[in-house]
Amino acid sequence: IIQKSNYEEIEKRDMKKPVRRENLAISPRLAKIMINLSESDENNKLVDAFCGIGVVLQEALLRDIKVIGVDNDKEAIEGAKKNLKWFGFPEKNYTLIYGDSGKVKIENVQALVSEPDFGKTLKKTPSKQDAGLMIKNFERLIINVLNNMKKHVSGRFVFTTPFINIGKQRIGCDFEKISVKTGLKLVRGFPIAEFRENQIVGRNIAVLIK
Predict the structure, then answer these.
(1) With a threshold of 0.90, does the pTM exceed it?
(2) Which residues are CB-contacts of 144 (< 8 A; sequence separation ≥ 6)?
């Protein structure tokens, strides 16, 4: 056992922080899982290419892992600044960048841990065609970001992808396509599905390596 989770403490830091985005931000629980999968430790640094208000960043910093957060939403970056300041993390341990993760230049890090933008929020079950278009747009996005980031990441790439309910089944990304287009390999045993039965857009958690 390397860590025990105090769920009351996790809920407190999720609910009490200055800036929250209920529909967009991932939970601290999922962020912790993804950081574990990245095999990062306090001797290393990770990047979140879609950092939002900083949930992955905060969970990494709580484990003394230094971080870089990138997002093309200026309001989200400002929210992340407020949240990380509220936690009291030393500013020397994190860098926040307002920019496009498909183009931005970063310093070298050990891992990438991120929940990318899945696209528009769905309030009803989409057709197979609409879901397929959403998946293709996501694949284009993540391939572009991975190709930009891979030269600066020495270890694992851990990220979520949409897993969409279209009625009697769910459809997700073509990981073989992502692998071919990026030169990265899917780690055996992945992706891992993470969703609730009534959830329209669930997640697959993917881990890729060079």
Answers:
(1) yes
(2) 102
